[in-house]
């Protein structure tokens, strides 16, 4: 009987050691995959390019907002839209289709403001019925972009063209909220470990 008990104990120890080894191997593989993904040159380069794109794009968005606040719906909105599209084109190798497509509604709204402004100016002094229609459309899109007053566009369209939506989309590109959550979790873990040591 003692020999049988020793055999079971030895088998149990072997299985326990094997399970611990497999757990350690799995953790090691996960750590290697994480290290390769997070620390690889390409991952670092992609993150740097995303950050660079977001900074430049937001700088142009803020210039656009400044122009629109100062001048209202203006033909200059076309210039700003063009600069935003050029930035996307410059960084297109580093941006996903979802990012590129997600910024299109805002840029289209700026083009609509600029084009309508050109039409309004071209029809100035005429009795063309298109002029009041163009003025109304121009101001509706302007209100949507600037998130002013009561909007008439459907909610789904409205959220895609506001400055706030563009900023949120760019923060998502960089995973700012996820990075902040991870940082907060690490700080909490470090503080908990410090309290346990103390």
Can you describe what's shown?
This protein has helices spanning 2-39, 41-71, 76-90, 97-102, 104-122, 130-146, 155-161, 163-174, 176-197. By secondary structure, it is mainly alpha-helical. Residues 153-159 have low confidence and may be disordered. 18% of the residues are buried.
Summarize the structure.
The protein is mainly α. The protein has nine helices and no strands.
What layout of secondary structure does this protein have?
Blueprint: H1 2-39, H2 41-71, H3 76-90, H4 97-102, H5 104-122, H6 130-146, H7 155-161, H8 163-174, H9 176-197
Helix pairs in contact: 2-3, 2-8, 3-5, 5-6
Strand content: under 5%
Topology, number of strands: 0
Mean pLDDT across all amino acids: 80
Spans of at least 5 consecutive residues whose pLDDT stays below 50 are 153-159
Number of helical elements: 9
Terminal Cα separation, in Å? 49 Å
User: What is the SS-derived class?
Assistant: mainly alpha
Topology as H/E string? HHHHHHHHH
Largest sheet: none
Radius of gyration: 28 Å
Residues in helices, as a percent range: over 70%
Broad shape: rod-shaped
Please supply descriptive tags for the structure shown above:
198 residues; 9 helices
């Amino acid at each position: 009987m003692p020999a049988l008990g020793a055999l079971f104990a030895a088998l149990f120890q072997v299985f326990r050691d094997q399970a611990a080894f497999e757990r350690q191997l799995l953790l090691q593989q996960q750590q290697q995959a994480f290290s390769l993904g997070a620390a690889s040159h390409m991952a670092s380069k992609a993150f740097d390019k995303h950050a660079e794109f977001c900074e430049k794009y937001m700088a142009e968005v803020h210039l656009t907002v400044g122009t629109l606040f100062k001048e209202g719906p203006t033909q200059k909105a076309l210039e700003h839209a063009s600069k935003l599209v050029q930035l996307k084109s410059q960084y297109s190798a580093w941006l996903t289709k979802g990012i590129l497509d997600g910024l299109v509604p805002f840029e289209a709204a700026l083009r609509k403001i600029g084009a309508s402004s050109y039409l309004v100016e071209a029809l100035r002094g005429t009795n063309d019925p298109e002029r009041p229609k163009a003025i109304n459309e121009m101001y509706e899109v302007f209100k949507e972009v600037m998130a002013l007053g009561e909007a008439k566009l459907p909610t789904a369209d409205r959220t895609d063209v506001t400055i706030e939506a563009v900023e949120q989309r760019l923060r998502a590109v960089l995973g700012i909220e996820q990075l902040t959550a991870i940082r907060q979790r690490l700080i909490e873990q470090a503080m908990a470990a410090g309290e346990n040591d103390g």
